[in-house]
Amino acid sequence: MSGSGAASGPGSGSSPAACRFAHYFVLCGIDADSGLEPDELAVLYQWLEADRQGKSQDAADTTSGENFDQSPLRRTFKSKVLAHYPQNIEWNPFDQDAVNMLCMPKGLSFRTQTDSKDPQFHSFIITREDGSRTYGFVLTFYEEVTSKQICTAMQTLYQMHNAEHYSSVYASSSCSMDSLASSIDEGDTASLLKLQRYNSYDISRDTLYVSKSICLITPLPFMQACKKFLIQLYKAVTSQQPPPLPLESYIHNILYEVPLPPPGRSLKFYGVYEPVICQRPGPNELPLSDYPLREAFELLGLENLVQVFTCVLLEMQILLYSQDYQRLMTVAEGITTLLFPFQWQHVYVPILPASLLHFLDAPVPYLMGLQSKEGTDRSKLELPQEANLCFVDIDNHFIELPEEFPQFPNKVDFIQELSEVVLQFGIPPEGSLHCSESATKLKNLVLKDLVIDKKNGNVSTNNISMYELLKGNETIARLQALAERTGVTVEKMDLSASLSEKEKDLKLQCEEAELRDYKLNVQLREVFANRFTQMFADYEAFVIQTAQDMESWLTSREQMQNFDKASFLSDQPEPYLPFLSRFIETQMFATFIDNKIMSQWEEKDPLLRVFDSRIEKIRLYNVRAPTMRTSIYQKCSTLKEAAQSIEQRLMKMDHTAIHPHLLDMKIGQGKYERGFFPKLQSDVLATGPANNNRWVSRSATTQRRKERLRQHSEHIGLDNDLREKYVQEARSLGKNLRQPKLSDLSPAVIAQTNWKFVEGLLKECRMKTKRMLVEKMGHEAVELGHGEANITGLEENTLIASLCDLLERIWSHGLQIKQGKSALWSHLIQFQDREEKQEHLAESPVALGPERRKSDSGVMLPTLRVSLIQDMRHIQNMSEIKTDVGRARAWIRLSLEKKLLSQHLKQLLSNQPLTKKLYKRYAFLRCEEEREQFLYHLLSLNAVDYFCFTSVFTTIMIPYRSVIIPIKKLSNAIITSNPWICVAGELGDTGVMQIPKNLLEMTFECQNLGKLTTVQIGHDNSGLLAKWLVDCVMVRNEITGHTYRFPCGRWLGKGIDDGSLERILIGELMTTASDEDLVKQCRTPPQQKSPTSARRLSITSLTGKTTKPNAGQIQEGIGEAVNNIVKHFHKPEKERGSLTVLLCGENGLVAALEQVFHHGFKSARIFHKNVFIWDFIERAVAYFENADQILDNEDDVLIQKSSCKTFCHYVHAINTAPRNIGKDGKFQILVCLGTRDRLLPQWIPLLAECPAITRMYEESALLRDCMTVNSLIRILQTIQDFTIVLEGSLIKGVDVNPIV
After folding, report:
1. Which of 94-103, 568-577, 690-699, 1115-1124 has the lowest mean pLDDT?
2. Would strands 979-985 and 1001-1007 be described as parallel, antiparallel, or unpaired?
3. What predicted TM-score, i.e. pTM, was given to this entire model?
4. Torsion of CA 480, 484, 488, 490, to 10 degrees
5. Which of 212, 568, 865, 904 could form a disulfide with 542 if both were Cys (CB 3.0 to 4.6 A apart)?
């Protein structure tokens, strides 16, 4: 299927095919010698359908009646390529089976003189394995059957059909005549007889017609020109007068003497009756697109089209659905055209033949078109997978979107701009389906519901031309006049009419309409292209280019990141992020960036060249304007210019092709017979003229060869084997699946295709898990200062959504019977049903990690049972989730957060009888080796922590379990006071909850708290045994299993420690033993810890005997604590983690300042009580309040007095708060408030100059050293630029309203 350069081998003619307008002319129809053959592909299709439905092959044979129960005129029969010219082109071989299948996708169809026989035009596309495309343009018309043998065979089929079915016409509801009768008034027997006649064939009474197709196959999509040429050929066949020249002359001319127009030029060539004009965009314009976007916008409407366009950009599965093949092509080509500068990289089959319906099982992104049968309800269409499917019902102006669907950036403004463009051309933005359909409805009004089967392919389903039947009827005449006045035209009716003067006037209007279509096309495309130019104006700055040459880049392509995604996203406006974070993960974006990198070493990709030139133009105009990084909508400014260039080319022809001329034909052949396409002379059409160099120069051939070389990636310096390997594995990462080959549908080929699916899914899983793992580990390392972050929360969420999509596609592959929209959830439900029936299995669930968490006191946190079924129940209890797809995604997120995804899926698949029942043999889930590798890749994700469930489902109710662990060796075994607890997280807190006396464990339910941050614990000091020494508090989320430890190591009670009756504890997430092992294997740095009880005891109560830090260490600690806060605010907002830990945790700002204040602090004397930092603070306040006698009015003194007043106010507010906070707790609150309100740099010098410092601090203390104090003030000033929001639990009850 592939080659390079222009071939001039045997049968291809001497003119290089690469420069010719058309490559092949094809004639398809009935083979008179073979007679009537049932369409084998239709039979295969039914067999595949029966296989999909889970029926046996025998059942398929006996029920093959969907074809054979129909009346013979409605059945599908085998078509054949009757002739094609030339025989072959070496680098674009003729694929006879594929062309036949796409010219007549559902075989031959028959009509009688009473049926509508309007010709129908449609186009198709063949995508070769290298991604290059060939276009086909087909006109299908009806020709009278002259073979007596075929007429007799049809008569015999009718006799058999009538004998079998008419006897049960009133008994069977499936009978076609019964369906017909049911829609007609019972008394109207005349109508019934009339309809019976329309649905029957009598050889003595009726004339039989059969479909025939003429087709042009071209390298470029010149749809309008090909359509005009084919229509003129058809008119020549049906005209009363023979054409001016034999048809061979015109076909020979377009095959061998009409060149491709050069880029930026227009070309005129000649059909049978009139010239045909086409044009080709220049090198710096948008690439050629000849399909009218007007039709696509009319069919879908702006809103729907933009939504489908977004789905295509995000590489979802898109299924187009219509009765009309040309509509499928128009919408598919229209949308892919709008992708510039990107290109669709996956399966692209705009017209999916019936025999390839099983390809909808493909677990890959695809864009396919499926012909609908008239009257088929969407609900009856069984699709293998719908979790990530965008279903587009073109005929009914309706789309179904996948869940979790991000909107296109500036969608409202974008649609508004598009509306302004289409309104200028008279198209309503909501689409004009009702207008375009009204002509068809006029013709089909009466018999719309009377025909029950429409399997006759690309031919119009208007079986009876009501206009012909009722010609002369006054009502119809009035309706027709009304239709003309409102601009509705019956397009199909003027094909077979003669060229009257009236039609010549119409022709001029059509040319005007064609020009309008061209102008509308280019203006709409400019608006779309402008969106990408604005969004990716700075993309080049984020391209990572590390390799020195192409060979080294290709060999290491899979290990490299070629685009700095995190930096790019951090540079984008917030509203763009949901869409952009997913889009930059697509294959089309990866290919675009690959092409950019490869342009260093080879000729730049044409689309990339045009796009880059547009960005340069913007920069010249804007001089890197800041508007590039805002979400302000900027309209396209090149609409007029683009339309003018098209108009100029079409108004003034640059080139005119050679006129058709008489050929050296045998006398007596090519005889004209009206209504019959003649048998063409093969010898004159097999080759082109001996010498025709007018259109082909050496440079053009060289240029074409260069393009072919680029398409096949034949890189300099690489031998063929290496090139093939690297091109397949490196340049097409994630794109393992080739296009389906239409010409070979043997079971072996189907099996091979499915095997490619399996390999592709496994490779995609490996790449996705690797990306998630490496980038997440990098993010954790950053928190410890080991590198730069290269993943954001948004990006992480995108990767997890992508993993959910992959799992859905894996579970949809090879499914026997589809149940619900989510194949994964359906499997889980069936597994749950089976497991719940076996109660003995539920009694011995698997345990997670160590059986119990123990402490010195012997109090234990009960084991959390690990159960796949229990996790499912958690999801089923979430009323917020309404769909199966949503439940499956929530279950994946929960399992990933619990580090049980691989284990759960392994357990699910361990039920082999269920898996065999649900999946065919070729399914991914039944390929044992690949399945094991898949589970292993998922297991690697356990090395990192995800909060993808907790952070997404923020409003659900979650059960928690808390355990308070006292130090019993030093504390009372029983306490008489009434303890309480308040648990807080990033999303809220529980409020104060009373703990039953002497019960250290309790469970409670509240709305999701998010990651837990603090616990407040205290008691009311009642009774004789009130003092309580708490080691720590443990709190566990009973759904996710996350367990947090809140170290305390302090007394709660009056007259002991610092006299506190409540404490604020800072939490740390605990890891299981298995997690720690994985972390060690992966060399991930350990997590940051919360404050330890040892540190709190030794520093704050001054009773510890541990080594005290020296002055240098203390100053370093302050710098590190402040630096961590600064780094926190430089992260994206959604990535900042807990500020509480940075303030109050180990190595936090409070701890660092405690060390500063503790340095040189005079220890407690013997027989004296302990002295705390807060004692010094209170003495300072007493001094400031008595220092009002200073009457100096200098400015700095006034400022100092103001600072003193504020400081005293804050200390009083803390002291008078309705809380039983100890002295160390009060100091923590003071530091937090001072940091929030930017007052610490003012307070430090006041305290350093306070006379109490000389009595309470030694001379060597840091606070008595001026240089150190000044340095401390400068460091603290660096965090004054940030808005610090304190967690409510830290300052609850402290009122520091401004001083009056």
Report:
1. 690-699
2. unpaired
3. 0.69
4. 60
5. 568
